[in-house]
Amino acid sequence: MTVDPRKVLMRSLLPGTEERIAKLNHSEIAYSESKAEGPNLVLVHGLSVRRDSFRNVVPFLLKRFHVFAIDLRGHGFSSRHEVGYTFTEYSAELAEFVDQVVGNPAFVWGQSLGASTAIIAADRLPGSFRAVFAEDPGIMRTESSIPDDSYLHEALLNIRDMVLNNLSMEETIAVLTDGKSPDEIDFEANQILAEGWASLNARAIEAALERQLFVEFHPMDSILTVQCPAFLAQADPDLGGIILDSHIRDIEPLPPNWQFKRYFGAEHVIHYSNPEEIARDAIEFFDGIG
């Protein structure tokens, strides 16, 4: 039997945090908040997952920051809209969350969709953000926001189909582990993915596949115009990273407020592949901002 995860009592999705709901103008945004003192840091996940995708790095961050981790609209326990899955809505709600819940200009660390959202939000509404750490955002400038022949396009099609077919978490995990030996299986990561997909609105995936993300704003434009300090983290394109070297050449030289690092041997979600390294880099980056 498939259980609607929105009707299940929320356990603590991230260690050292409490679960909360913020009522914004057009959405309810589910989030986790730590009790630790320190500068405010907002974590924004990638497409199809939810805030517990940051589980591997949160223990490092709790030592230094007051952490907020959100579920974007259509993901996790946040509002499930049928429309509005563009960077216009994503970035506006991120800025509204910072203004209404965090209450002060915040640091933000986003991954993939979350990274692009953070870049655009900090460009559109600069007063809400102190700095942006952008982990492998989708910055490609193509006619299609996600090229049809790409690994990412195929992966999103598969995720969409699993969501539309209402696979149970057990069935989803079976798909994720098919053909793999026990030594190759990351059981915790697969559980997080399966739970995230079980609570995902397929419209969020379909909007990306249908090229709706970029209807008004594009992260490549905002990279060149955002004013706050920023850090661009590139995953290894040979291992599924979505920023190609050609994309980097398109924006070189980066504006002086940007730092850049390529993580060799890291998959698209760098904080899965290299959690200690990228957490250390993010902390050093934010600590260097007055």
Q: Report the order of strands and helices.
A: EEEHEHEHEHHHHHEHEHH
Residue-averaged pLDDT: 87
Say what the CATH topology is: Rossmann fold
The CATH superfamily is known as Alpha/Beta hydrolase fold, catalytic domain
* Gross geometry: globular
Question: How many domains make up the 3D coordinates?
Answer: 1
Approximately how much helix is present in the residues? Answer: 25-40%
Largest sheet: 8 strands, mixed
List the main descriptive attributes of the protein structure presented here.
disordered N terminus; 11 helices; 290 residues; alpha/beta; 8 strands; globular; eight-stranded mixed β-sheet; Rossmann fold
Describe this structure in words.
This protein has 290 residues and is of the alpha/beta class. The protein contains 11 helices and 8 strands. An 8-stranded mixed sheet has the order 1-2-4-3-5-6-7-8, with helices on both faces. It is globular, with a radius of gyration of 18 Å. Residues 1-10 have low confidence and may be disordered.
Provide a compact summary of the structure.
The chain is built from 11 helices and 8 strands. With 290 residues, it is of the alpha/beta class.
